[in-house]
Design goal:
The protein is α/β, with parallel strands linked by helices. Helices cover 36% and strands 19% of the residues. It folds into two domains: 251 residues, BirA Bifunctional Protein, domain 2, CATH 3.30.930; 96 residues, Anticodon-binding domain (Rossmann fold, 3-Layer(aba) Sandwich). Helix 2 packs across helix 4. Bound molecules: adenosine monophosphate.
C-alpha cells in the first residue's frame, strides 16, 4: 500500500482519461463559441454565503455536501469550494455590472466542482462540469436554444441515446399554492415518511417529489402535478418552450416529478438521461431557469437560464460504449541515432522539429539503434529520423514506420518532408 492516496471520492485522471476529458472540453468550447456563449472563469471557492443564499439552505448541496474551508478569521470570511457554477457566475454578473452589457449575457465555463457526496461510480467529491448560462433573457426561445445545445453536445460527444426530461415548476405567483397542495397530499402519510422527508415536508416539500427513497414511490406517483396548476403566464411560457423544441425537432418527455434539487429554479426545468436510465439517480446533466437568483444575490431582478453537464458521467458512458474515441499517436517523429552514445545531435534535431511545430521526441537513452527503433514503433510514431554517418554531409535517414520505407533526406528539407508526408498520411492520401 502506498503511504498516500488521492482523497476518497477523488481520482487522478491519468493520460488516457485526461485526454478523454480534454476532448469533451474542446467540444464544449467549440460549441460555446458556435452558439455565442463566451468562456469565463470564476474562483474555485467563494464566500460560503454565495452558495447558501444562491442554492438555498434546505438543499443537499448546502446542508450536507458543501466543502467549507476552515475560516481565516483575519479576513473575517467563510469560504466554500464551489459545488456548482451558477451561483458564482451570477455573483460575477452582479459584481462586474454585466447588466449594462447587451442582454442576455451568454457565458460558458468548464471546470471542477466539489461536493461532499457519498462516493460511488459516477458520483465523486471532485467532478467536472460544463456550464452555460444566458442571463437577462426571460425566454421562451432561449430555453429551447440551451436545451438543444445540450443535446448537440451529447450527440457530438458520441452519445446518441440521450433523452430530455422536461417540466415547468412555476414561479412565485403559482408555486406557493401548489406547494401547499403538495403538503396537504403528504400530510396524512406523515407517519410513513422517512425522517429526512418528514423534515422537508415543512421546509421544502418540492424536494419530496424527487426523493429516490422507494418508500416514497407510491405517494409521489399520486402527487398533484405542478404543470396542472401553473398560472397563465407560466403555462404560456411552458407551451412556448415546447413549441420551440418541437420546431427544432428535439424530443422530450414531460416529467412532473422533475423539480431539481436547487431552490432558485423557476419555470423551465430539464434533465438529460441516457435512454433506459431515466428517473434513476444518475442524470448526465440538467438545468433550468432561475429568474429569482440575480435579485437574491443582490442584483436587480433579472431572468436567467442555464445548464450543467457532468463530464465524468459522459466519459463513463463513452467507456461503457467501448472507448472514448480513437487513441491518436502523440508523437509524429522520433529521432534516433546509429551511435548509441551520441545524444547531442538527436536532441538538436528533435528540438528543431518541435520548433517547426512537429510533435517529435528524441531517444535520449544511450542504447542500441534497434532498441531505439522498437521504442519509436511502440509509440506508433509515423517517422523515425535516423542520425548516422551521412549527417556529416548534411543528410539523415527518414524511415516511414507504418509503410516500412526509408529514404535519405537533406537535413534542410527534413521539416518540410515530414510535414508534407504526415499531412498526406492523416488524410489517407499517398505519402
Ligand atoms: P446538478 O448541479 O446536481 O444538477 O448536477 C449536474 C450534473 O453534474 C449531473 O447531472 C452530473 O452529471 C454532474 N454531477 C453532479 N454531482 C456529481 C458528482 N458528485 N459526481 C459526478 N458528477 C456529478
Amino acid at each position: 500500500m502506498p503511504t498516500f492516496r488521492a482523497p476518497r471520492g477523488t481520482r487522478d485522471l491519468l493520460a488516457g482519461e485526461r485526454r478523454a476529458f480534454a476532448r469533451l472540453e474542446e467540444l464544449a468550447s467549440g460549441l460555446a463559441a458556435r452558439y455565442g456563449y463566451r468562456e469565463l472563469e470564476t474562483p474555485l471557492f467563494e464566500q460560503a454565503a454565495v452558495f447558501e443564499r444562491g442554492i438555498g439552505e434546505v438543499t443537499d448541496v448546502v446542508e450536507k455536501e458543501l466543502f467549507r474551508l476552515a475560516s481565516r478569521t483575519e479576513e473575517g470570511e467563510v469560504w466554500a469550494l464551489r459545488p456548482e457554477a451558477t451561483a458564482g457566475i451570477v455573483r460575477a454578473y452582479i459584481q462586474h455590472g454585466m447588466h449594462t452589457q447587451p442582454q442576455p449575457v451568454k457565458v460558458s465555463l468548464t471546470g471542477p466542482m466539489f461536493r461532499y457526496d457519498r462516493p460511488q461510480a459516477g458520483r465523486y467529491r471532485q467532478f467536472w462540469q460544463w456550464d452555460v448560462e444566458a442571463i437577462g433573457d426571460p425566454g421562451p426561445a432561449v430555453d429551447a436554444e440551451i436545451i438543444e445545445l445540450g443535446v448537440r453536445f451529447y450527440r457530438d460527444a458520441g452519445l446518441a441515446d440521450v433523452r430530455v426530461l422536461l417540466n415547468s415548476i412555476g414561479d412565485p405567483a403559482c408555486r406557493p399554492a401548489y406547494v401547499e397542495t403538495l403538503r396537504e397530499h403528504y400530510r396524512p402519510a406523515i407517519g410513513r415518511l422517512p425522517g429526512i422527508e418528514r423534515e422537508r415536508l415543512e421546509s421544502n416539500p418540492l424536494r419530496l417529489l424527487d426523493s429516490k427513497d422507494p418508500a416514497m414511490a407510491a405517494l409521489n406517483a399520486s402527487a398533484p402535478r405542478i404543470v396542472d396548476r401553473l398560472c397563465d403566464a407560466c403555462a404560456a411560457h411552458f407551451a412556448a418552450v415546447r413549441g420551440h423544441l418541437d420546431a427544432l425537432g428535439i424530443a422530450y418527455r414531460l416529467q412532473p416529478g422533475l423539480v431539481r434539487g436547487l431552490d432558485y429554479y423557476t419555470r423551465t426545468a430539464f434533465e438529460y438521461y441516457r435512454e433506459g436510465a431515466e428517473g434513476q439517480q444518475q442524470a448526465l446533466g440538467g438545468g433550468g431557469r432561475y429568474d429569482g437568483l440575480v435579485e437574491l444575490l443582490g442584483g436587480k431582478p433579472t431572468p436567467g437560464i442555464g445548464f450543467a453537464l457532468g463530464l465524468d458521467r459522459v466519459v463513463l458512458a463513452l467507456e461503457a460504449n467501448g472507448g472514448a474515441g480513437p487513441v491518436e499517436p502523440e508523437v509524429t517523429a522520433v529521432v534516433v541515432g546509429a551511435d548509441p552514445l551520441e545524444t547531442v545531435l538527436r536532441l538538436v534535431v528533435a528540438t528543431e522539429l518541435r520548433a517547426a511545430g512537429i510533435a517529435a521526441r528524441a531517444e535520449l537513452g544511450q542504447r542500441k539503434l534497434g532498441k531505439q527503433l522498437e521504442s519509436a514503433a511502440r509509440d506508433r510514431a509515423h517517422f523515425a529520423v535516423i542520425i548516422g554517418d551521412e549527417y556529416a554531409d548534411g543528410q539523415v535517414q527518414l524511415r516511414d514506420l507504418p509503410a516500412g520505407t526509408q529514404k535519405t533526406v537533406a537535413r534542410a528539407d527534413l521539416q518540410r518532408e515530414i510535414s508534407r508526408a504526415h499531412a498526406a498520411h492523416r488524410h489517407g492520401g499517398p505519402a
